[in-house]
Amino acid sequence: QSVPQQKLLTWLSVLECVEVFAEMGTARVWGEMGRWTIIVLIQLAKAILRLLLLLWYKAGIQTSPPIVPLNREQQQPLHPQDMEDGSTGKDQTYVGRRSSRVVRSLQNTPSLQSRHWGSPQQREESQNRRAEEMNQPPTPLGLQETVAESIYITRPLLHLLSLGLWGQRSWKPWLLSAVLDISSLSLLSDLKDLNRREQAELRRRTILLLYYLLRSPFYDRYSEGRILFLLRFLADYVPGVGYVTRPLMDYLPAWQKIYFYNWG
């Protein structure tokens, strides 16, 4: 990845990290009008960044989060003693004669802070596999797939525009958004030879279609009563489940009102 592309990914990641805080903070300070203003501005900025990545830098199917979170356990370098022993050819492991089990020798046991429960070979293989996944180039997109990804990127803007035209109680924004999401996934379904990150992203988008059960007006008219009834039933009749379902019943209405939780 080039430096400008990495900067775009960084800014996109920052926006996704602060969008909920910005929405709630703006609503508290400037009210409902300020809340919707910051929502539109953030979604517009995200769409511009994603379109630049798609059309200019040919970034392919864009994943969420844009930058993979750092796994400090896997990124942690090997123990200095391990590295020194590896360079001198000294055996770092012992293979049991009867069990054939591979264990680390006592001389090569790292400190408690850097200790892991796999053999050095397993850890090295895991690091190499993760590095390969990170360095895999994006799958080239044809015209159909580029249109599909563009539909997915611009869907939030079209949904906000339809909310402004028809209002939050109308079914038209909900239906328009659902049609765009399903159309994008359908057009991308013919794409083959995706890398692991891209496959995981398409699975994530498919699972997120369930969010339409929690989005207004469908939630207000159909889902709310049934979901709350199910959670209440589980809390009353299944031992121990109430510790999870009762706080969820209290949290669900607040979650449903936050745009970036529900629609972002």
Q: In terms of structural class, how would the helical and strand content be classed?
A: mainly alpha
Strand content range: under 5%
As an assembly, this protein is single chain
Helicity level:
55-70%
User: What order do the strands of the largest sheet run in, or round the barrel if closed?
Assistant: 1-2
Model regions low in confidence, pLDDT < 50 over at least 5 residues: 78-90
Q: What's the number of helices?
A: 10
Number of E-type strands:
2
User: What form results from the Cα inertia axes?
Assistant: globular
Radius of gyration: 24 Å
Overall mean pLDDT: 84
Distance between the termini: 26 Å
What pattern of helices and strands is seen along the backbone?
A: HHHEEHHHHHHH
Largest sheet data = 2 strands, antiparallel
Organism: Centropus bengalensis (lesser coucal)
Family: Belongs to the peroxin-16 family.
GO cellular component, one term: peroxisomal membrane
Subcellular location: Peroxisome membrane
Secondary-structure map:
Layout: H1 3-56, H2 72-75, H3 80-88, E1 93-95, E2 102-104, H4 120-135, H5 143-166, H6 171-188, H7 196-207, H8 218-237, H9 242-257, H10 259-262
Antiparallel strand pairs: 1-2
Helix pairs in contact: 1-5, 5-6, 8-9
